[in-house]
Hints:
By secondary structure, this protein is α/β, with parallel strands linked by helices. The chain has two domains: about 5-140, Rossmann fold, CATH 3.40.50.450; about 140-230, Immunoglobulin-like (Sandwich). About 25% of the residues lie in helices and about 30% in strands. It has helices at about 15-30, 45-55, 75-90, 120-140, 150-155; strands at about 5-10, 30-35, 55-60, 90-100, 110-115, 140-145, 160-170, 170-175, 175-180, 180-185, 185-195, 200-205, 210-215, 215-220, 225-230. The strands form three sheets. Strands 7, 8, 9, 12, 13, 14 and 15 form a seven-stranded antiparallel β-sheet that branches. The chain is elongated. The two termini are about 40 Å apart.
Amino acid sequence: MMKRVFLAFAFRDEDCDLVTAVEQLLASFDVRATTGERLGGGPITPLVQARIDQAGGLIALLTRRDQKVGGGWTTHQWVQDELNYGRNQHKRTIALIEDGVTVEGAYVQHEWIALKRDNPLPAFLGLAETVGTWQREVGRTVKVRILPDELSRLVGYNDAIKCRYRFVVEGRYTEWRDIPPVMEPGGTFVYLEGVRDEYMIQLMAEDQRSTWVSPATSQWMQIRLARRGTNQ
């Protein structure tokens, strides 16, 4: 599940209420907003880049800054820089663009949401739909107990046994992925990330001599592995 989203915005009084509203919307999805903590201008610092890298997505508030002579408004360059950096890193991104703001550059064709301060509800409904889509794409973290208990203890105590998992999506298998087992009170568990509701799960445990594998199993059921045979 996505836990953090980077929020790019101008640190000024006019945008405080808007920023607070976005943070509250993210909190309703159990998502925390992280920011760049910059007052404006200058290149993106390594600290800001690291925060964007660690976030599951990026929301940019492209609000009005200076009025143009021929009409329209500029926006805040550093907010655009943070948005462009996130897109260059292939992050999930969305821009809320205030009415009258004109945006130019390589990313003007990307998806964006129109924002009107006197009627912000449509923008926030669109943002909620976007964040909900992000959450579904990211999936959940599912805790799975390794069964039977004999294998659970064996995996927990023997570092030579490696665990892997894959998903079954509409009858198709994903690639096997390594997963570290965690020995806890009550058994040995694995924590699988990126699980969507429709996925089925298959686990494998193996060492140099033996392999244990489960059938593709609904994530809402216990998964029990059976010995498949001896590796040659």
